[in-house]
Amino acid sequence: MEFLHHIFSNNPECSVQVSSFTPASGDNSEHHMIFQFSGKRSNDPGATNAGNDCMAVLHSCMQEWLSRDPYRDSERVFVRYFLKDASVQRSRIHTRELFPATCAVSFIEQPPANKTEMAVWIYLRDKGSVPERYTHFWTTEKFCLAGNVTQQTRKLLMDYQQWLHIKGCNMKDHCLRTWFFIKDIDANYSAFAKSRTEYFEEIGMDKDTHYIASTGIEGSNGAPASYVTMDAYAVSGLEPDRITYLRGLTHLSPTNIYGVTFERGVALRFDDRTQILISGTASIDQWGNVMHLDDIKSQTLRMWKNVEVLLHEAGSGYEDVAQIIVYLRRQEDYELVDDLFRSRFPSIPTLIVMGRVCRPTWLIEMECIAITHA
How far apart are CA 85 and CA 102, in angstroms? Predict the structure, then answer.
C-alpha cells in the first residue's frame, strides 16, 4: 500500500489523503481518496478562501487532482459526499462535471467533525489490460418517502432485491456490504433492525446461513420524509468459497444475540487481491456488552482492538488498510479522537464525521477497507 498526503498550494485549507494498491501483476491498481478542509471553516475571516463557496473550492481541488497521472484515466467507481446540511447542499453539487453517469454517487448528511461544511471519499480503479471476470455493482441512495421506518426499510430492501434480480443477482448470494443511514437513530433504530431481520428471514438469511457486512449509523439524505437510506455493494462472478465472513468471536459477539443482523466484516478473494470490508465496529465485548461507558479514549482503544482482530482473521492488519471512516456521537470528543488517530495511523486516509451510533452508550464507531495481495 502506498500513501500520499497533499495540501493544495492555491487552497491550503484543502487537502487530499490517498492510498494506492497495486497487485503483483502491476495491473488494475485501485485508489481511495479523502478530500477535506482543515479545521478552519471556509467562511471564517482567517480562512484563505473566505467569502468563496467551499463547495466550489473543494471541487476545484478535486478536478485538479483527478486530472493528474495516474488518476486521470482511472475509472471513477464510487463517491460519497459527507455534508453539513444535505437538504441545502446536495442540490448545489453538480457531480457530472467530475464523475460520469456510471459512477455511483452518495450524498449523506454527516457533518465533518472538524466543523467544516463537507468532505468527500472517492474510490477509483485503473483500467487493466485484461478484462475482469467479476462485475461490481455499487448502488447508492436507495430510499422511499412513504410510510414509517418499518415500512420504508422493507420497501427499500424489496426494491434493491428486485434491482439485483434484473442484474441476474440476489441479495443473499451477491450483496456483500451495505450502509444504512437512519434519521434520529436513537428513536428509529430498533424498528429498522426488526424490519431488516424479518425481510432477511424471508429471503433465506438467518444466523445459520449468513448476513451482510454493514454499517447502521445516524445520517440523512436530506429529504424530510425519508427515515432510512441505503448504499450497497454487490459482486457477481465471485464463487462462494472466495467469500469469508468475519466474526472475531474472541472479542466480539454474534450480532443476532442483541437483535441485529449483520456480519462484522467480509473478505473477498479475487484473482489478484483480497478486499476486506470491515463493518461499523464499536467498543463491544464477546457477550455483546458496551465496554468503557462514558470513556471515549478507552472505547477508541477497544474499537481498534476489535477491528484488528477482524483484520487478522482475514490474514491482514492495519498496514493493509486503505481508508477509515470514524463516527462520533459527541462533538466534544473530536480533538482527542483526532489526536489518537493521527498518532497511530498518520498515513491512512481517515475521515471523522458526526454520526450517532446505534446504542446511546457507544460514543464512537469506525469502519474500514483493507486490501492485500492474493
Answer: 25
